[in-house]
Recover the amino acids of this structure.
């Protein structure tokens, strides 16, 4: 994947970048793996906004991604690399010997014609795209799409350019270093996929204009400082003033900007060997 740079024909085009899509080999998605995707506007089942700054955006169809990789010991052939509007990574269309097709995340180095396999056996080659048990993956290997509980499917390390690393193995657990820097214990019978998630240069994309964010369904974010006192605790004041509050807060008065909200008695604390970087 590479970046496409635009000529500054307008102010918004200056410095704007975007993906060149050279790695994408198929422009139309597989119809059997599409489902309708209804927009929520950031609202929950009660109609209350629980995620702000959501709304609008282009219509999308959901691609069914195989995070579980539950067809065991059957090699699948990569027949296309596709774009997915619902995630930052590219997806790969694979076909099994019984002609069943599925989508998987496309790691760096995966190409059309290559074969990938999911297995519980030790004998399989450690190559990009293969899905193995953590106990059969050597320490130091880069992995992605990692299960947290056996059989649940990959839940973490799935965005573009991300990868985790197996640091060590101890007893029934592996020490996995996550992209955040956190080291976490994960059972050796959980699956993970070899390699780093593709589309690495996604983080270098410069949008250039506000409208491009709106296409993605992201609405404007306004600083609390720029609001009135009725709308935000940081609002108000004569002229351009500071936030006033020595402890920055959310619109509802809860501490923010670096304040840690993780519960001290959370059940999963025992699995964290080393906290992420502050």
């Amino acid at each position: 994947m590479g970046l496409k740079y635009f000529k500054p024909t307008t102010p918004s085009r200056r410095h704007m970048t975007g993906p060149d899509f050279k790695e994408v080999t198929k422009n139309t998605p597989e119809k059997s793996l599409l489902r309708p995707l209804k927009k929520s506007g950031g609202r929950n089942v009660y109609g209350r906004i629980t995620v702000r700054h959501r709304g609008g955006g282009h219509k999308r169809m959901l691609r069914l991604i195989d995070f579980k990789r539950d067809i065991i010991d059957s090699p699948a052939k990569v027949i296309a690399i596709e774009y997915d509007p619902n995630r930052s990574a590219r997806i790969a269309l694979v076909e099994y010997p019984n002609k069943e097709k599925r989508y998987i995340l496309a790691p760096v180095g995966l190409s059309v014609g290559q074969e990938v396999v999911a297995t519980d056996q030790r004998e399989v080659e450690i190559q990009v795209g293969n899905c193995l048990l953590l106990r059969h993956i050597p320490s130091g290997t880069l992995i992605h799409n990692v299960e947290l509980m056996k059989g649940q499917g990959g839940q973490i390390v799935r965005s573009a350019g991300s990868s985790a690393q197996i640091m060590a193995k101890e007893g029934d657990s592996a020490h996995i270093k996550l992209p955040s820097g956190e080291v976490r214990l994960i059972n050796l019978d959980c699956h993970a996929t070899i390699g780093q998630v593709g589309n690495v240069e996604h983080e270098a994309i410069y949008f250039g204009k506000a409208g491009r964010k709106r296409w993605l369904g992201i609405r404007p974010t306004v600083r609390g400082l720029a609001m009135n006192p009725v709308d935000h605790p940081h609002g108000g004041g004569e002229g351009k003033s500071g936030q006033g509050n020595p402890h920055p807060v959310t619109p509802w008065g809860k501490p923010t900007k670096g304040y840690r909200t993780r519960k001290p008695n959370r059940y999963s604390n025992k699995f964290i060997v080393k906290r992420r970087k502050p």
The chain has a mean pLDDT of 95. The radius of gyration is 22 Å.
